[in-house]
Amino acid sequence: MEMQALMKEYARFVRTGPGKCIIAEGSCGDSFFYILSGKVKVTKRIGEKEVTLRELVPGDFFGELALIHDRPRAASVLTVEKTDLYEMGRESFYKLLRNNPEISMEILCTSSNWLLESHRQYIEKLQQQTRELATLLEQKDELALSLERESRLLEQEKEKYQSLVEHSLVGVFLIQDSRIIFANTTFLHMTGCRDMEEVYDLRPNDLFLPHTRYPVSDKTDARGLEHYEVKVRTASGEERIWEIRSVPITMNNEHALLSNVSDLTEKKRLEKENEETRMQLIQESKLASIGFLAAGIAHNLNNPLASIYTVAQVLKQEHPQMTEADRIIGLCRNMMDIIKNLMIKSRMDQSDEVIAVDLNKLLDNELKFFEANLDFKHNITKEYAFEESLPAVCGIYNDFSQTIMNIVSNAVDAMYDSPQKLLSIKTASDAKNIFIEITDTGCGIPEDHLSKIFDPFFTTKPMISEKQEGEPTGTGLGMASSLQLIRKYNGTIRVKSIPGKGTSVTLVIPVDTHL
Fold first, then answer.
1. Contact 3/61 with Cβ under 8 angstroms?
2. CA 270 → CA 267, 456, 457, distances in Å?
3. How many CB atoms lie within 10 A of CB 182?
4. Average pLDDT in the 7-36 region?
5. What is the chain's percent helix, strand, coil content, to nearest 5?
6. What is the spatial distance between Cα 411 and Cα 405, in angstroms, rounded to a whole number?
7. pLDDT digits (tens, 9 = 90+) for 495-507
8. Which of 190, 332, 368, 470 is the most exposed place for a label (fewest CB within 10 A)?
């Protein structure tokens, strides 16, 4: 008897729509199915995928293996379209096989072939997935190696840039949320902090002095770069001048400000000293021009002064009773002496000839020119004690005159508001040295300033633009240049001072000095 006719005898008729699950993989079932019309597909889950093993059409049957072996379903069966089936229970299926042995062989043969084909397809799928998995594993290994190489390169780049930043000659710091969140070692040293923790605790407002920031350029470029100078106070309390360049960046999806900084303090100091030196040179050039002009005027005064002196001599001879002639002769002699000294000084100051210099005579000549200073002439008591047998020194006249007169000028300035003004100058010698001691009763020098008085541009006197009426001014070059000049002759300068009482400066010049 044909299968379809037997199904009609032993089974019941079932109709189902498309996409319906007739058998679920892994379920236990008691039904055998025969397809009358329509189509179903047999699927099995392999790994993460649902794989279609085969499709069944009218005349095919399924579900027999679970009944024969009494095990869970090995695959799922779903309708592809509207399908008519015969469904047979376990008891009816066994009855069919007992009563129709030929059908049993047909079912077993068909099932065996189908099972072999399913296993073959399953094995092929597994082999394909194994190959895909091997390819993926190979790609994974290559990817892992590539990631490892990229990681090493990134680490090398990180080390390189970190080294560049850490060993940068300028300070680098990063500000975010008004706090310093990163700084390099140079910035640590510039701030005077002991470690990075102290830097991170700093706020810009604690570091920068208020109202001291001013831009180097009045324009900001397209990237938002700022370039400005600002005064800061370091951890030690020292004030410095910084030049800062800042640019906005994004850090961890938040706005931040990356800056580099250079210390301009020393540069600014040198610029100020250079400007003061330039002004000093201009002043000295003016004084040289005035001295040259004065020498010319003195030279031109000689002839008319000689005529006046001659006429006075004639008047005295013709009219012995005229006392005015003696007065005129005396004044003429004084003027001649002044002009003579002026001519000598002008000539000696402009000469770099090495000669034997009589320091007593130099002092006598140079101090006469201070008489032009009315305060020196009328208000200061002078006490001079020059050793008569003072040895001469070998050198350039102007080196000694400039050195001594710088110190005398400082002594006069120190007494400008002293209630008692006494200038004492003494010369003495021993077997090795000549001593010139210049003492004043001025304001004196504080102890903490004594070590600085020979530093260029160090002065407690105000600049010309800052002085009060009658107050002496200074550039801070007098003592520095004096020491430099006297050292040419292996000499030294000793200073003793009592604040409020006065200062004593002693020049010590070796007797056998020579250039």
1. yes
2. 5, 11, 11
3. 17
4. 88
5. 45, 25, 25
6. 10
7. 999 888 899 999 9
8. 470
* Tokens 């005295």 sit on residue: 316
Amino acid at residue number 74: A
- Of the options 3.40.50.300, 2.40.40.10, 3.30.450.20, 2.40.50.140, the CATH number for the domain spanning 171-263: 3.30.450.20
Q: What is the mean pLDDT of residues 61-66?
A: 80
**pLDDT confidence of residue 140:** 81
What is the rounded CA–CA span in Å between residue 124 and residue 138? Answer: 21
Q: pLDDT tens digit string along 151-195?
A: 787 777 667 666 666 777 788 888 888 888 888 888 888 888 888
Neighbours of 238 (CB within 10 A): 10
Phi, psi of 37 (to 5 degrees): -155, 160
> How many residues in total does the chain contain?
515
Reduced to 3 states, what is the DSSP secondary structure of residue 406? Answer: helix
pLDDT tens digits, 105-152: 777 666 666 666 666 766 777 777 778 778 888 888 888 888 888 878
In terms of CATH architecture, what is 354-515? 2-Layer Sandwich (3.30)
Report the alpha-carbon distance of residue 477 to residue 450 in Å, rounded.
15
Tokens 């993989």 — which residue? Answer: 25
* pTM of the model as a whole: 0.42
| Max Cα–Cα distance, the chain, nearest Å | 191
Instruction: Please state which of the four CATH numbers 1.10.1240, 3.30.1910, 1.10.287, 1.10.1660 is assigned to the domain occupying 265-350.
Output: 1.10.287
Averaged pLDDT for residues 247-266: 87
